[in-house]
Design brief:
It is a single chain. This protein has about 190 residues and is mainly β. The chain contains three helices and 18 strands. Strands 1, 3, 5, 8, 9, 11, 12, 13, 15, 16, 17 and 18 form a twelve-stranded mixed beta sheet that branches. A four-stranded antiparallel beta sheet has the order 2-4-14-10, with no helix packed on it.
C-alpha cells in the first residue's frame, strides 16, 4: 500500500511539473510596439476653466512594425481597442487626487469612453477608413495644477497599452505605444486658470 502512495506522489509531481505557466500563450496574447498611436491635442500647458483636454487615438488597421506590416483587424477580428488614462489634480504639495466626471460630461467625438477612477477609452473600427478611431475631450472644471498619466494599466511610464477587444478564440493584440510630451515620471503636467 505504501508503494502505491509513493507511485501516486511521483505521478502527481510529474503532472504538476509539466503544467503550462505561459499565460500569454494560453490566452493567445501577442505583443507589438508601435509608437505615437495616442496623443494629446497640441495646446499650451495652460488651459482656462471650461476648456477640454482632448486625447486622440486614430490609427490604421495596418501597423508598421519596422520590417513587416501587421493587419490588426485581420489578426484579431477586433472592432475595438481599449486603453486607459488618469487625470489628477494637485491638492497639496505632494498629494494628488483623481479627477472624475460624469460620462455625460465627456465630449465624445469618436470612439467611446467611460470615466471612474480612470478614463477607459475605446477606439472603434471604421470600416470605410480602415482606422481605429478615438477622440474624447475631458472637461477642465476648476482651476489648479493637473497631470495626466497613461500608467494606470501600463507597465512603463512613457507607454500606453492598447489591448484589442477580440472575439473569443481569436488573438488578443497588445500594442505598447510610446507617448511624446510626458516628463521623466510619465506625466503630462498642465495648469488650469
Amino acid at each position: 500500500m505504501k508503494k502505491l502512495q509513493y507511485i501516486g506522489l511521483i505521478i502527481l509531481a510529474l503532472l504538476v511539473s509539466n503544467c503550462d505557466t505561459d499565460d500569454d500563450g494560453f490566452y493567445n496574447n501577442v505583443f507589438v510596439s508601435v509608437p505615437n498611436l495616442v496623443a494629446m491635442d497640441a495646446h499650451p500647458t495652460t488651459y482656462s476653466v471650461g476648456e477640454r483636454l482632448y486625447i486622440s487615438a486614430d490609427f490604421s488597421r495596418y501597423l508598421d512594425e519596422g520590417t513587416t506590416t501587421l493587419d490588426a483587424f485581420l489578426t484579431t477580428g477586433a472592432t475595438e481597442f481599449a486603453f486607459s488614462y488618469v487625470i489628477e489634480k494637485q491638492i497639496s504639495g505632494t498629494e494628488w487626487q483623481i479627477v472624475s466626471v460624469n460620462d455625460s460630461q465627456l465630449d465624445i467625438v469618436r470612439g467611446n469612453a467611460q470615466n471612474g477612477s480612470y478614463v477607459y477609452g475605446v477606439c472603434e473600427y471604421n470600416a470605410v477608413s480602415e482606422m481605429y478611431e478615438y477622440r474624447v475631450g475631458f472637461p477642465l472644471l476648476s482651476a489648479g495644477t493637473y497631470r495626466l498619466s497613461y500608467g494606470y494599466n501600463s507597465d512603463t511610464l512613457n507607454n500606453v497599452e492598447l489591448r484589442s477587444l477580440s472575439p473569443k478564440k481569436r488573438l488578443v493584440l497588445n500594442i505598447n505605444s510610446a507617448i511624446t510630451g510626458l516628463d521623466a515620471d510619465g506625466y503630462y503636467n498642465f495648469t488650469v486658470n
